[in-house]
TrEMBL record:
Residues 1-19 form the signal peptide. One of its GO terms (cellular component) is membrane. It catalyses: Hydrolysis of terminal non-reducing N-acetyl-D-hexosamine residues in N-acetyl-beta-D-hexosaminides. Keywords: Glycosidase, Hydrolase, Signal. The active site is at E557. This is beta-N-acetylhexosaminidase. It comes from Shewanella cyperi. One of its GO terms (molecular function) is beta-N-acetylhexosaminidase activity. Pfam families: CHB_HEX, CHB_HEX_C, Glyco_hydro_20, Glyco_hydro_20b. GO terms for biological process: carbohydrate metabolic process; glycosaminoglycan metabolic process. Residues 53-218 form the Chitobiase/beta-hexosaminidases N-terminal domain.
Length: 884
């Protein structure tokens, strides 16, 4: 239930307000108010451009501490205060203009006699001069004090690309609100955002918030136990194999001369991609290279393999293409990219989970086919085998569908068109330009290429178009289709795929503040549309020679757009088996799931929507992605749905959402509704086979201990049954704040490597699951001192493996992973530093001096001192921190 910007949903649930009920929070968009005409002369395009080029906008969060002036009927009475400042360097008296901007959490109130702020739809707002607007004097700053729902705890929340609109003129982006790029780190810079400096009022969201700001000293204490020991990386590979035996009596194998593959009972084509990765690391196919035998062995598990490395030859045994590819991936992981040597050893391996997935949201902000190809290569390198593509949501439809051109002609782009005849409304700081990089879609040929590319690397693509909620792009596209065909006199064609009931008077709001984003599930045209989309996607899979096996409905966060729909009244009267209006959402999921099953396709959905269905009306084979917070008893939903016999895939937000920040720092990128700190060690520590046991090692979002009750009968809960097990895990990349391919790489890597470790390898330090049920908390003691020590020692190996060896391979692949922030402290005038991944370089500088290489404890006096890390290839730099 907590996905993407569903912070609102979680927060409402915490304060006893339901955002999942059909009524939902009543945040209906307000009509735009007319702006006054201060100057009788109409603006020209050049005057509007000049104003946009020179108007300085700044955004400052004042406090996240709620007060008695917060709206009592909104957000549970919680709000934050901020200021939007407008400064014009020259006199400007015109009043016939508006500024449009994205504000993630809607404005509750504005204390201004000169301006009005309106909420348009979603996060889109407008600022317009009111009757009291007196114009700008040269150099004058006008301050707009606002209160908005909940809180704003990150500088990244302030969306870019405010733009100006005036009658009969082209919209113009305000230059001061455009993103810039740090030349050394490549990271986004927001010149309009005033940096946070008050930990109590800006960084914390309540007086009870115990989460520390991840400053250099905080990171130093956290990293202090991890040794810098390159020996730990020497013979390690990632993901960790089931069994590994070193043969120290034999000489290491030197692969500088390459490899000479021999295929016995198998073929080269299925492993060509894995061989190509070895070549990129410097191990090419050469006739005089080390003999590499690939031998078919049907006795092995379908994804298992044996790898025998000796001085004279290397042998990989497997039952099929996946096993051979994974054996070659292990060879690549063992390889030192500098020496190209591997120790002699034997490996016997197979995965812990069959489903090892990565989810990427293309809908909120589009990302290129080139990025997808790069991600697929990286997934294959680390033995991930499912790519879940989120292709449609409120903010965009990203796949060409034959016969429905409006889905991409209109639904794939956002621009300034309030009627939405040509595009969707701007959202997420996209600005008014339809040619912006955040717009776009995959053509049918693109999608077929991706399917084939993934299949050649043993990866299954799972398409998803979210329905019935999160469907605004589809609704608006089909309404444009309706208007086009109706104008031609084709009323039958106009209504063929219509997704709303024009007589529906329901007022609702989604958790992302849309009042028009939900399909009407009572219309046959809705199901005709869904059937059409599924059939066209199926055809693309057939064209690629890759059958469509799993289709993700979404089914989450449905606000309910049918309470006052005549079409629904008629349907319920005609079919008493549906029940009442509260069952209409379940009816949609059940009917679409049955539709999919009849086509030989397994239906999948997010756990909140799947939790509403009547199980006896669902197909026998179903997948559910559990995305309930563990700190809010999320294990109960996972266990309940796994016990139905469904394929349960963990998508746990506070550890598997890669759009969450790496560290609790206002400058770190990402949403944070479920967790404000999700670094690689946190993910590595995840006990996937015993979800409630994580309460012994983790805290909630405010760094407070929590208790997980896994006993039977607790709120209709029951422990996981012995005959059921978790099917797998999936990392999620939601893209509301990720406007570039580079940011996706930054947020995905190196966390993707930890995802692969937890998906493939079952560590021996996990707390064994107790099928009789138990209560877990910081004092329950099931996670013993011995298990904690084993976990820490395993982490030391993995941390050194990344820092000394594996990150170099990401550099060679051209992947812009996040370079970690440095831990540091000054003691008796000397600087001490450390890193989450030992082995990377560190630089420091005194004051505003030049950056210097850090080579051990050095004299720095009292400071000020800044520190930053250097990428494994010595080229890129990470974000700097000041040492306190």
């Amino acid at each position: 239930m907590m996905k993407t910007s569903a912070a609102i949903l979680l927060l409402l649930s915490m304060i006893g307000v339901s955002a999942c009920s059909p009524q939902g929070p009543q945040q209906v968009s307000q009509p735009e108010l007319p702006a006054p005409q201060v100057s009788p002369a109409a603006l020209t395009q050049s005057e509007l451009q000049r104003f946009a080029d020179n108007l300085k906008i700044s955004y400052r969060v004042l406090t996240n501490v709620s007060d008695d002036q917060c709206a009592r009927d909104r957000a549970g009475g919680r709000c934050f205060q901020a200021e939007i400042s407008l400064t014009s360097p020259f006199e400007f008296s015109a009043g016939d203009w508006r500024i449009y901007f994205s504000q993630m959490r809607p404005v509750q109130s504005l204390n201004s006699s000169e301006f009005i702020i309106n909420h348009i739809q979603g996060d889109l707002h407008s600022i317009s001069p009111s009757a009291g607007f007196s114009g700008f004097k040269a150099g004058e700053t006008k301050v707009l004090p606002i209160r908005a729902d909940f809180w704003q705890l990150s500088e990244v929340d302030a969306m870019p690309n405010y733009y100006l609109v005036a009658p009969n003129l082209q919209p113009v982006v305000i230059a001061s609100t455009q993103l810039q790029q740090d030349p050394e780190t490549g990271l986004e810079v927001r010149p309009y955002m005033v940096a946070f400096n008050d930990e109590e009022r800006q960084f914390k969201r309540s007086p009870e918030d115990n989460l520390p700001w991840a400053k250099a000293n905080v990171i130093y204490e956290r990293n202090q136990d991890t040794p810098d020991n390159a020996e730990l990386a020497a013979d390690s590979l990632l993901p960790t194999p089931l069994h590994q035996e070193l043969l120290p009596e034999q000489a290491p194998v030197d692969l500088k001369k390459g490899i000479s593959p021999v295929f016995i009972g198998t073929q080269r084509a299925p492993v060509a991609a894995a061989l190509a990765r070895l070549a990129r690391l410097g191990v090419r196919e050469e006739a005089a290279g080390v003999a590499l035998e690939l031998v078919s062995d049907p006795s092995l598990a379908s994804e298992g393999y044996r790898l025998d490395i000796a001085a004279g030859a290397i042998k990989i045994s497997a039952a099929g293409a996946a096993g051979f590819s994974y054996g070659l991936s292990s060879l690549a992981s063992l390889l030192d990219p500098d020496s190209l040597q591997i120790s002699a050893m034997r490996i016997r391996d197979e995965p812990h989970y069959g489903f090892r997935g990565l989810h990427l949201d293309l809908a909120r902000n589009f990302h290129s086919k080139q990025l997808l190809l790069k991600l697929i290569d990286a997934m294959a390198a680390y033995k991930l085998n499912r790519l879940h593509l989120h292709l449609a949501d409120d903010e965009g439809w990203r796949l060409e569908i034959d016969g429905l051109p409006e889905l991409t002609d209109i639904g794939s782009k956002r621009c300034h068109d309030l009627a939405e005849d040509n595009c969707l409304l701007p959202q997420l700081g996209s600005g008014p330009d339809p040619d912006s990089a955040v717009n776009g879609f995959l053509t049918k040929a693109d999608y077929v290429e991706l399917l084939q590319y993934a299949a050649a690397r043993q990866i299954q693509v799972i398409p998803s178009m979210d329905m019935p909620g999160h469907s605004r792009a589809a609704i608006k596209a089909m309404e444009a289709r309706y208007r086009r065909l109706l104008a031609k006199g084709d009323s039958k064609g106009a209504t063929e795929y219509r997704l709303l009931d024009p007589e529906d008077k329901t007022q609702y709001s989604s958790v992302q503040y849309y009042n028009d984003n939900t399909l009407n599930v009572c219309l046959e045209s809705t199901f005709h549309f869904v059937d059409k989309v599924i059939d066209e996607v199926t055809k693309l899979h057939q064209s690629a020679g890759v059958p469509l096996q799993l289709y993700h409905i979404g089914a989450d966060e449905t606000a309910g757009a049918w309470l006052e729909s005549p079409a629904c009244e008629a349907l319920l009267a005609a079919d008493s088996s549906i029940g009442d209006k509260q069952h209409l959402g379940a009816y949609f999921i059940e009917r679409v799931s049955t539709m999919l099953a009849s086509k030989g396709i397994t239906p999948a959905g997010w756990s909140d929507g799947m939790g509403h269905v009547r199980v006896d009306r669902m197909p026998a084979k179903v997948q559910s992605n559990s995305w309930d917070l563990l700190s809010h008893q999320g294990h109960r939903v996972a266990h309940r749905q796994a016990n139905l016999g469904w394929q349960l895939v963990l998508s746990t937000p506070e550890v598997l959402y890669f759009d969450f920040p790496y560290e609790a720092d206002p400058k770190e990128h990402g949403y944070y509704w479920g967790a404000r700190q999700n670094n690689s060690r946190h993910l590595f520590n995840f006990m996937t086979d015993n979800l409630p046991a994580n309460a012994e090692q983790w805290t909630d979002i405010e760094n407070r201990p929590y208790s997980a009750d896994d006993r039977a009968g607790v709120q209709v809960s029951e422990p996981l049954r012995p005959e059921n097990r978790i099917a797998g895990i999936q990392g999620q990349i939601w893209s509301e704040t990720l406007r570039s391919d580079e940011l996706v790489e930054y947020m995905a890597f190196p966390r993707l490597l930890m995802l692969a470790e937890r998906a493939w390898h079952k560590p021996d330090w996990q707390v064994p699951y107790q099928y009789q049920g138990a209560v877990y908390n910081a004092d329950s003691g099931f996670f013993s001192a011995e298990l904690k020590l084993a976990q820490a020692q395993d982490w030391y190996r993995i941390a050194n493996l990344l820092g000394h060896k594996e990150l170099k391979k990401l550099d060679l692949a051209g992947i812009g992973y996040r370079i970690p922030t440095v831990g540091a402290r000054i003691s008796e005038g000397r600087l001490y530093t450390n890193l989450i991944f030992p082995g990377l370089g560190i630089e420091y500088r005194l004051g505003e001096g030049i950056w210097q290489t850090y080579q051990g404890s050095i004299e720095v006096g009292a400071g000020p001192v800044q520190v930053r890390a250097v990428g494994a290839d010595g080229k890129r730099r990470g974000r700097s921190l000041q040492v306190q």
